[in-house]
Amino acid sequence: MIELVVEGACIGCDICVRVCPTDVFDAVDGRAPVIARKDDCHTCMACELHCPADALYVSPRSDPDPAADLETIVGSGVLGSYARSLGWKRGAPGGTDDDPGVLTAFNRAPNPNDKVRMQLFNISLRNYIDVESPVRDA
Amino acid sequence: MAATQDPAARLAQGSYDTQLAADVLVIGGGPAGAWAALAAAECGASVVVAEKGYTGTAGPLSSANTGIYYIKPDDPIHRHGMVTARMPLAFGLADERWLERTLDQSYANLDAMARWGYKWPKNEAGQEYRARLRGPDTLIFLRRQLLKSRVRLLDHSPVMELLVSDGSAAGAAGVNRQTGDTWSVRAGAVVLATGGTAFLSGVAGTRGNTGDGYLFAAEAGAEFSGMEFSSQYAPAPHGGVLSRGAHLEYATLFDNAGNEITRGRKTVEAIEHTGAAWAILDKAKDEATRAMLRATHAHIFLHLDRLGIDPFTEQYRIDFRLEGTIRAVGGLAIDDELSTTVPGLFAAGDITTKEKVVGAGPPGGGPAAAWAIASGSWSGSSAARFAQRLGPSANTRAVVSIGGTGLHAAGSHRSDLTVADVTASVQAEMIPFDRNYWRSGVHLEASLNRFAGEWAQIRDGSLTPSGAATARDAARDLLRGREAAAMLATARWINASALARTETRGLHRRSDFPDLDPAQEHHLISGGLDRVWVQRRPVGTPEEALAS
Q1: Does any CB of chain B come closer than 8 Å to the CB of residue A136?
Q2: Which of B34, B14, B27, B48 is nearest to B183 (CA)?
Q3: Letter string b/e over residues B289-306, b meaning 16 or more CB atoms within 10 A of that residue's CB
Q4: Residue B128: beta bridge partners?
Q5: Strand ranges, E, within B219-259
Q6: What pLDDT, on the 0 to 100 scale, is given for residue B181?
Q7: What is the dihedral of CA B136, B137, B138, B142, to 10 degrees?
Q8: What are the tens digits of pLDDT across the range B348-396?
Q9: Predicted confidence band of residue B547 (pLDDT cuts 50, 70, 90)
Q10: Do A46 and B292 touch (CB under 8 A)?
Q11: Which residues, at least 6 apart from B446, have a Cβ–Cβ distance to it below 8 Å?
């Protein structure tokens, strides 16, 4: 669940207040938003991803994380690591075309005795499509 | 707080701060709701989306990837191969035509996303791969497309009740939980896309999934099908919340005694009987494979990293967490047009039954995602056509608001039960393996008796304290009461259906009837609020051709 709003990094845009699907934050005039309803956090990490200033930290735990104190988290370099791992920048999406998992070099055939899995594997190889310069809607 | 500011009282009086009218109202802004709205707008309808949270981050898809069907209609080997591979997994309850219809619509929608600019990865030969979507990117991408399509988005605007005109759905009313304001949307047709429910089991991205739409639909008289196929559990790291297992393709699993086990039922049995299950990604041996897994399943590794787990070199403990009706099967009964049994009330995504596509399940994320976007499109265009047939007089119809349990004004008669009491009672039956993963007649009967008593207690009283200081706090309290009522009602349809199915089939397991019974290859239809009912319906669809 959400653990930290780093006051020193926050730019006061209140995007987290808007995008949080469980309404965890309250906006505060002239200051960083506060975590007002921590128990409602469902750890989707959307706030952290959409934060343009890497000012939020969400713990993966379902219960409060006493180890997630400000000094430790800021010092660890973990702030913004979710966005970096996906290729998002300053709260803007990116990186969906960067997925080495689709390389055929990583295709692994299942146990040939498992006929259903084998059939699904063989047809999954047909997922790839040839694309020429795609026609984009205006 | 003055009584006139109490949102429950204001809803009861029809006193709304904002009043909107549209051809189509979509309730829920996840992938199914987004596609319903896009399809309705494409048909020329004016559309409003009311979302409890935020359209663009709402629902379980927000927290990770999903596989999805992308099968070219002109590749018969691919299409036929998928159909023949899936049908045996459906335990006799699916309909091949519905599976094919879902494959084709999923393909069409993903191609539309490509035209709109969504970018997919390519392999070494420059071929593109569209059979996986990144959750957070997809949702915010669809939000932008909705805004481009002039769909009006109401965020943080939970629906509290449907508006009905002469038995037909005619809109909805709700609150804005960030302001405490009330609102209403009059509409020619309504699409419910509020998702399934995990009964607040804690799984990532599911706090909003409290089954609200099931309750709204039942209050209008809608019926359910296959609610017993709802015992969906998925692996998550111990102490964590992200229930995804894609990376476990590279894992070896062990019980607590160190014996190797397989994924699924054997893992649950290991947790039950040996105390724990463990995983290690030892099939990812080289650095390139490990780097690939980190990049491809970045969400999963984010959670593992922050839990301090190195899954490649150490065995780590895994739990199976309840997803309930999310990614499962059971839900609202629908016809070929995605209409519920209530005129003007359509449904899409996890809130509907998926029996026609995946049978008794388990469907997995890919089919569930394909179903979400395909059924979304169908329901949206059906709703637009329904509204267009009604014409401009649709939104001058006389309406009544039909919300009941959980909606009573704070300060009115107080129920002896609180939101916490009701939630705890429901969770006690829905979460433990020995109640819901393995069901039994004796527990199901006891739970149904208790639930009936609790429902009788809360139906006429307020579930929340009357001490809210502001309209905003009162709106949040009201939402909590409504969510608790929805979870209790949903648990009753599930357990009544589970009691009636005296066999084990797909996502329904009975410890007292552990085998499949060929004589029970039928659907179980359920419904009712004060009196819950279940009846059998034979497998099969009407003779007329399916709309494509």
Answers
A1: yes
A2: B14
A3: bbebbbbbbbbbbbbbbb
A4: A129, B122
A5: 224-225, 232-237, 252-255
A6: 97
A7: 110
A8: 999 999 999 999 987 677 889 999 999 999 999 999 999 999 998 999 9
A9: very low
A10: no
A11: none
Residue type, B409: A
Question: Are the C-beta atoms of B520 and B528 separated by less than 8 Å?
Answer: no
ipTM above 0.90, yes or no: yes
Positive/negative CA dihedral, B410, B413, B419, B423: negative
Of residues B205, B155, B481, B447, the one with CA closest to residue B350: B205
Interface of A with B in 95-124 (CB under 8 A): 95-106, 108, 116, 119-120, 122-124
DSSP at B14:
T
**Alpha-carbon dihedral angle through residues A65, A87, A52, B27, given to the nearest 10 degrees:** -80
- Residue B437 is classified by DSSP as I
Residue B367, chain A, CB below 8 Å: the answer is: no
CB-CB: which of A19, A59, A135 is closest to B306? A59
Q: What are phi and psi of B247, to 5 degrees?
A: -70, -20
Contact between B69 and B375 (Cβ < 8 Å)? no
Residue B105 vs residues A75, B47, B72, B110, B264: alpha-carbon distances, Å: 48, 21, 10, 9, 30
pLDDT tens digits, residue range B209-218? 999 999 999 9
How far, CA to CA in Å, does A87 sit from each of A53, A56, A121, B242? Answer: 15, 17, 29, 20
Per-residue pLDDT of A77-121, as tens digits, reads 999 999 999 999 999 999 999 999 999 999 988 888 988 788 888
B136 → closest Cβ in A46, A104, A130: A46
A86 interaction partners in chain B (CB closer than 8 Å): 134, 136-137, 298
Residue B87 in contact with partner chain A when CB distance is under 8 A: no
| DSSP H or E stretch at residue B390 | helix B365-390
DSSP-based three-state secondary structure for B298:
helix
Which domains does chain A carry? 2-85 (3.30.70.20), 97-138 (no CATH)
Q: Which residue in the set B57, B84, B130 is minimally distant from A44, CB to CB?
A: B57
